[in-house]
User: Fold histidine kinase from Flavobacterium hydrophilum.
Amino acid sequence: MATIQQINGDYYGSKETLTEALPLIKKKDIYSASINNFFGIADKELSIYTDAIYYYEQALKDCSDPVSKLGALNNIAVVYILQKKYDKAISLLERIIHTKTLDNKFLKSNKARVLDNLGYAYFKKGLNKKGLLLMNEGYKMREQNEDLYGSIESNLHLAEYYSNTEPENSNQYAESAYQIATKFNSIDERLKALSFIISNDSGTKTGEYAQKYVFLNDSIIKIRNNYKNKFAKIKYDSKKEKDENQKLRLEKAEDSLALQKAEYQRIFLTIGIASLFCLIAYLIKRHQNKTRLVEFKTAYATETRIAKDIHDELANDVFHAITYTQTQPLTSENSKETLLQKLNHIYSRVRGISRENSNVDTGSNYSVNLKEMLSTYNSSITNVIITNIEKVNWDSIEYEKKVTIYRVLQELMVNMKKHSEARLVVIKFDSKLNSVIIDYTDNGKGCDKSKIIKNGLQNMENRILATKGTITFDTQPDKGFKAKITLPK
Assistant:
């Protein structure tokens, strides 16, 4: 599923699906290597280069055969080139090209790719002659192997090489890349090839190519957005069908059990036992009514919170986006880009509200999910540091307390994001014999202790007290905010 999403350009959705696959991994093997490799691809395409290298290195550790290891090393080198760390890329690719593994006749396409990347790295470093020699060697090898798809990258690299010195040569390679990419319906490569042709200003056809570029760029944005919505609906419908089937099986099992009970009752039960069952049924009904009332109150509280979040966080943004479309000329590229940024910001807000109100997984993957939730508040402004979370034996902690910890920390992070303006947040976990201790510290603007209830922290205290725990706050204006949570195991 994650592969399909990446093919269609949905890299954030792909990472979510890959995260769902992680709990299914029982050992380090080709599957864990594949998952880490796809994480690396997604982060590379999203220009999150540090994370991409991390995941490629994890994939490298899980690879068991030399060919897979070479693929992971090549991917790391490609990211180094994107980071302009050409010396690192060259050193790594030189090491790959001199391995005996690439001498295998069945790995010529791999060798051609490494040669092309090595030549491109030399070219980007300024060693043009050596770079051109290697890129041409990789290109010829790809032609001999009839590796059409791989030759797209070679053509694009050569088009870039000649773009500043020999525009005609650059156009020839760019047009070749465009034709092959069109054959394979590879939109991103077509756009890159068109950008070279347009920048070279080849003449009368420049306007035609520019129109193609605009058309392709607009089309791919619409198609990928539609695909994301379609994929989300498919996943939702699939889960709904699965839940309904499971419910049907349970109902059938319950019906079968009820028939058996009825059969035994007709044989063995007396009028007195029947009366007892009536009493039990009454008590069960009463308990169910009480449970439904609690569930209703919980649902009402959740709906109220969501409604407040939507009103406070989204209403103004949506209004500004609507006003922008009514007052700005959307034919302008700058206007389109600004509108897309506004819509993407709104989309991120909606995702955040959804995440804050989703169910908490308290199973074996609890600590991973908790750490991931806290890490989502990392940003270019705020650095979140999480320590010693692995030292806590989460399996020994009750379900309700895990949910309480998750929600209280989530509320602390939301409160920090809305009010604190903190640049650094540190969350430290500690496990004693009979208790779990969590220390939260940030260097934000703090507040007056008397106004803590107004900032929504009273709700956290109520949650902790309900599980027989304690929470204390320490804050002063312009001196940060601290909280200490202690929960019995």
About this structure: The chain has 17 helices and five strands.
